[in-house]
Amino acid sequence: MSRIVVVSNRVPVPAGNAGQAGGLAVALLGLMERRGGLWFGWSGAVVERSGQPTVTQRGAVGYATLDLTEAEHRGYYTGYSNGVLWPMLHGLPHLIAFRRQDLDTYRRVNRRFADCLVPMLRRDDRIWVHDYHLLSLPGALRARGVRNPTGFFLHVPFPAPDAASVAPGIRALVQDVLEADLIGFQTAADRDNFASAASGLAGATRRAEDRLEHGGRHVRLGIFPAEINAREFAATAEAQMREEPARLLRRSLDGQALLLGVDRLDPTKGLPERLEAFSRMLARRPNQAVTFLQIAAPSREEVVAYRRLRTELDASAGAINSEHGEPHWVPLRMLARAQRRDTVAGFMRLARVGVVTPLRDGMNLVAKEFVAAQDPRDPGVLVLSCFAGAAAQLPSALLVNPHDVEGMAEALQAALDMPLEERRARWQASWAAIAEATPEAWGESFLRALAPEDLAGIPAAGVA
Ligand code: F6P
C-alpha cells in the first residue's frame, strides 16, 4: 500500500501541542496511527526566524512540523484564515477584516508548506490536504511538479457563490484547490455551493453531480460527513459518571435538570442567541428547577471578533443571573475554560438537554457526542441548529433556527418537558444514525475515493 501524507494546519505531535489539536486532528489520529504515514503541518510554535521542518517519528507515523514566524502567524492564521476565510465560509461577512498583506502572507505560507513538503514526498504517496488554511496548497504542489494523487477535505461549510465572492482573493484560491483530484465536503449543500462557485468564479464546468471539469482535467467531488467513535464515547461517558467531576456536578445540581452547551468561544457558535433563548425561557416560566452549564473554550484570542464576543458573553451571563437568579439559585454557569473531552462526556450523560445551536457549522461533532453519551434508558434531548452539518444526519433532534430566539426558547422548554417515551424514540433514531460509523472508516472512505486501486481489501466505510 502506498504511503498516506496528511497535511493540516494543526498536527497532534505526541507530547507536543496535542492539547490544541481540535476536532480535525482527533478525527485523523486513529487512522494515521493504524495506517502509518507522514503528517505535515504547523508545529503550533511562533518563532523569531523561520527554519526547516522538524520530524518526530512515533510508531508508524512521522510528524513533520514547521514553526511560523510572528508575521506568518499574524497574516496566514490570524489575519486571512480566521479573519477572512472563516467568517466568509460560515456566512458572517460583517466579521471579515481584510488586509491585502494577510492574503499575500497566506499564499506565501502555503507555498512554504509546499517547498518544505516536496523533498519529503515519494513517488507513490497519496496526499490528503485539510481545511481552509491550505486552500492554495494543491495548486502550489502542482506548480512544483507534484503529480501524486491529491485530495482536499473541507471541514467547514462552503457558502453560496455570492457569499463566497465577498472574500478578496477567493477566485485564485478556488482555482488552486481545483488542482486536487478529489475535493471532499461534509454535506451535499457544501458540495453544490462549491461547484457553483467553481463555475462562477473559476470557469469550471459541472459534468456530473460528483465531477467538475477545469483546465482540461476532471476533479471529483464527494460527501464525507465526519464521524466520531460513538461506542467508544458512550463507554467513556458511562465510566465518567464514577469520576469526581461528574459526581461533583451531579451533587451541585441537587436534582435540577441540566442544560449543557459545549463549544469553542467562537462567533459562529451562536452563543449570544443561545443565552438569550435561555433567558426568555426563564422569563416565561420563572424559577424552574434547571441549571444551564455553558462551557466556552477560549479560541483564537488574537482575532478581535473573538475578544469582543468574550466581553459580550460575560456581560450576558451576568445579566441573566442578576435578572433571573434567586438567593438560593444561579441559573447559568458559564466556564470560559476548555475541559477534558472525557470529563465533558460525563457531563453530557448527566444533561437532560444538549444545546448545540451554531449559526453555521461544517458538522459539529459535539452534537454526535451528546447523542453517544446518553443513557439509553433515560436519554437527554438534543436541541440542534438546522445550520449544523450534523442536522442532515440527526433529523430526530429538536431542530431549531438559531436566529429565532423565541423558537429556541420554546424548543429548550419542550426538551425539558418531553416525556420519556418521546425522548427514547428520538434518541434511538439519532443513535442508529451514528452508532456504526467511526472516524477511521470516514478517513478510509475518503482515501478509497482518492485512490480506489490502492485500498482494495480495506473494509468498506459506514458513511455515504
Ligand atoms: O472546524 C475547523 C477546525 O479546524 C476544527 O478542526 C478545530 O476544532 C478548530 O477548527 C480549531 O481551530 P484552531 O486550529 O484555530 O484552534
What structural keywords apply?
464 residues, Rossmann fold, ten-stranded mixed sheet, six-stranded parallel sheet, 20% strand, binds 6-O-phosphono-beta-D-fructofuranose
Average pLDDT, rounded to a whole number, is: 94
Q: Say how many strands there are.
A: 16
Name the beta content range: 15-25%
CATH third-level topology of the largest domain: Rossmann fold
**Which percent bin holds the helix content?**
40-55%
Count of spatially separate domains: 2
Write a structural description.
The chain has helices spanning 22-35, 70-89, 100-117, 137-143, 161-164, 170-177, 188-202, 230-240, 244-253, 271-284, 304-324, 341-350, 365-373, 405-417, 420-434, 439-450, and strands spanning 4-10, 37-47, 54-58, 61-69, 126-130, 150-153, 182-185, 205-208, 211-214, 217-223, 257-264, 290-297, 332-335, 353-356, 381-385, 398-400. 43% of the residues lie in helices and 20% in strands. The strands form 2 sheets. It has a 10-stranded mixed sheet with strand order 3-4-2-1-5-6-7-10-9-8, sandwiched between helices. With 464 residues, it is of the alpha/beta class. 6-O-phosphono-beta-D-fructofuranose binds next to strand 1 and helix 1.
List the helices and strands and how they pair.
Layout: E1 4-10, H1 22-35, E2 37-47, E3 54-58, E4 61-69, H2 70-89, H3 100-117, E5 126-130, H4 137-143, E6 150-153, H5 161-164, H6 170-177, E7 182-185, H7 188-202, E8 205-208, E9 211-214, E10 217-223, H8 230-240, H9 244-253, E11 257-264, H10 271-284, E12 290-297, H11 304-324, E13 332-335, H12 341-350, E14 353-356, H13 365-373, E15 381-385, E16 398-400, H14 405-417, H15 420-434, H16 439-450
Parallel strand pairs: 1-2, 1-5, 2-4, 5-6, 6-7, 7-10, 11-12, 11-14, 12-13, 14-15, 15-16
Antiparallel strand pairs: 3-4, 8-9, 9-10
Helix pairs in contact: 1-16, 2-3, 4-6, 6-7, 8-12, 8-13, 9-12, 10-11, 10-14
The structure holds 6-O-phosphono-beta-D-fructofuranose (F6P).
